[in-house]
Amino acid sequence: MTFLTVFFQMSALLIMIGAGYLITKKGMMDEHTNNQMSHLIVRIFNPLLVLSSAANSVGQVSPDTVILAGCIAAGMFLVFIVAGMIISPFFEKDQMQRKMIQLMFVFSNVGFIGIPVISSIFGTEYVIYVSEFMLVYTLVFYTYGIALMDGKLTAASCRAMINPGTLSGIAALGIILFDIRLPEFIKTAITYLGNITSPMALLAVGFALAGSKIRKIFGQPQLYVFSMIKLLLLPLLLLPVISLVIKDPQLRAVCLVMFGMPVGNMPLILGNQRGLDVTVCSAAIILSTILCVLTVPLLMMFV
Prior knowledge:
This protein has 15 helices and no strands. By secondary structure, the chain is mainly α.
């Protein structure tokens, strides 16, 4: 794929974010609407997209490849955890804010942005690999993420691992491993419902942009440095490693793109729950999401 091919595909996603921005500014979407959309994405449409991807990939994707993707995802989170510990002191001196920076390094938007990006560039059948990243993401967030902020791991955080995203990831893995073939009418239904995920998720990003102060997003030089480290430097440092481990060029490209995803929403939510100042985190989410329109095509050039 050429730079321009991927850039135009990413630009289409940016246009959908812009649509969410305009809809919000015109008063056609408010906080209540956005919350309801987010719940629908997380609890229904996103899990169905993962299931439909698995159902449509039976016989086309080998179980060994799916398991390899899960192992690569686990390795990615381990590297990002270490990188966050090493790099965060250069961005923040306050101990609690430093923890926020660490979370921002580790927890990327593998779902809301990862799924639209992968399906746009590679096709919906490759979303099955994204589901492996989402599954590992959930496990790491409710263990490492909670323990980092609270200094301990609670029973409540472990129970929170049982959610529609985790269950759909496990079910998708089972469909591939055991070669389960769903009836065509069921596949059609869950595919149509799952396809709602991408545009709705991007509208939600546009809503967040409309409610933010533009100067706070684009006027902080340290956020550009942070974004370049997260979106480009770390993925490119990992590329030689995955090139040795992964022989399939398509899977290698998918994994590299997943390494370069923007900051996710979960650090923001966790910071809000703990009463922390999440201004920088909020700005980093939006800025890194917009910048990935340029950085993802650059990553694809290296692949």
